[in-house]
Design a protein that fits this description.
The complex is a heterodimer of chains A (113) and B (114). Chain A is mainly beta and 113 residues long. Helices cover 0% and strands 54% of the residues of chain A. Chain A is globular, with a radius of gyration of 13 Å. Classes of the chains: A mainly beta (113), B mainly beta (114).
Chain lengths: 113, 114
């Protein structure tokens, strides 16, 4: 049973435009959410996170939005750059539980020059 | 710090052989995770240690899989006997357990069982 879902396996965006990656979760105990970026033959690297007490967190070109009632979060990248082409994983954790990180299946983003 | 170190980077083995994957977490981190990456399930959590103690091994697929953490600086994931369907990339990650912290990943071990 997939507790964290990324329903779009892939996404293509033109350079300079906005990339929007989506993630849904089912466990209401999750209260901390993270996005990771993964290049081929490398381990995932942390990108940005958000706590459930917020609905938005911004870091440069990257913004994560959280909609707790819908159990949905999204990652916006503006403007998209060719170097952003990678697989993006959404993850969730419960800070009142075992602190383990549950990941989604990933979305492959391709930014076209 | 060198980050999370995994070895080997690549492993090719024959079906039925024992395989051992190794991980050195970041110094000072007290949580360690083993993940397996597959197309169908993404990054699948296999087992999670806190202070060297296994907390949750519900993701370990079968009894053929076992993991140990004999001390704070070393962990192993063993598959015995290995099968072709075990072929995947295995990642180790570590973190400081606490509020609003992230996990740091190693570069992974690509396992191929032929």
């Amino acid at each position: 049973d997939q507790q964290v879902k990324q329903n779009s396996p892939s996404l293509s965006v033109q350079e300079g435009r906005i990339s929007i990656l989506n993630c849904d979760y089912t466990n209401s105990m999750f209260d901390y959410f993270l996005w990771y970026k993964k290049y081929p033959a490398e381990g995932p690297t942390f990108l940005i996170s958000i706590s459930s007490i917020k609905d938005k967190n911004e870091d440069g070109r990257f913004t994560v939005f959280l909609n707790k009632s819908a159990k949905h979060l999204s990652l916006h990248i503006v403007p998209s750059q060719p170097g952003d082409s990678a697989v993006y994983f959404c993850a969730a954790s419960s800070t009142s539980g075992t602190y383990k990180y549950i990941f989604g299946t990933g979305t492959r983003l391709k930014v076209l020059a | 710090d060198a980050g999370v170190i995994q070895s080997p980077r690549h492993e090719v083995t024959e079906m039925g052989q024992e395989v051992t994957l190794r991980c050195k977490p970041i110094s000072g981190h007290n949580s360690l995770f083993w993940y397996r990456q597959t197309m169908m399930r993404g990054l699948e959590l296999l087992i999670y240690f806190n202070n060297n103690v296994p907390i949750d091994d519900s993701g370990m697929p079968e009894d053929r899989f076992s993991a140990k953490m004999p001390n704070a600086s070393f962990s192993t994931l063993k598959i015995q006997p290995s099968e072709p369907r075990d072929s995947a990339v295995y990642f180790c990650a570590s973190s400081v357990q606490g509020l609003n912290t992230e996990a740091f990943f190693g570069q992974g071990t690509r396992l191929t069982v032929v």
